[in-house]
Amino acid sequence: MTIRDQDIVQIRTAKADRLESIYLPEVIKGFGTTMRHFFTSFGAGKTSKTMQYPEVRREDLKLEDGGMEVKNFRGFHRLNRDEQGRVKCVACMMCPTICPAKCIHIEAAASPWDDREKYPAKFEIDELRCIYCGMCEEACPVDAIELTQAYDIVGLSRSEMVFDKEKLLRIYDETVAKKPM
């Protein structure tokens, strides 16, 4: 099928005049925007939005609505436990499949419990590769993996930042103990 001449639309851009060709008006407009933001962010009692960590921690900041917790913040992962204290994961492989960073590694084994077929014999998350998108949390059918509010876990080597099943369950124990009941 050929394109007819009447179906073709010619687009011509307007020629820039001498002042527009050196971009001076746009540079001045940009500088004006920068100065406006500078003076409105420091004027009228407002302060910088930068958090002075570690002197000021995220938990210490008062939100504008009076709350203390940021609901959409995603920190390090944890593996949740079920009512019997076992790992809640059923090794369905949904989280490593959907992970865009490919930072989750699971090795499934036959479950020693009667209520499920599989469980993760090995569960690792490379926190340095993770982009904290939350897709693993959304994909999990049993709510076994969760992103917490914890953000200050450090490691001195790359291997320390690969969280295994035991460390992820330890983070669960620590974060659930901190939660107000």
Topology:
Blueprint: H1 18-21, H2 24-42, E1 77-79, H3 94-98, E2 104-110, E3 118-126, H4 135-139, E4 145-147, E5 162-163, H5 165-178
Antiparallel strand pairs: 1-4, 2-3, 3-5
Keyword list:
181 residues; alpha+beta; Alpha-Beta Plaits; 2 domains; three-stranded antiparallel sheet; flat
Describe the protein:
- With 181 residues, the chain is of the alpha+beta class.
- It folds into two domains: 19-50; 77-178, Alpha-Beta Plaits (2-Layer Sandwich).
- The protein has five helices and five strands, in the order ααβαββαββα.
- The strands form two sheets. A three-stranded antiparallel sheet has the order 2-3-5. The protein has a two-stranded antiparallel ribbon with strand order 1-4.
- β2 (104-110) and β3 form a beta hairpin.
- 15% of the residues are buried.
- The model has no long low-confidence stretch (mean pLDDT 85).
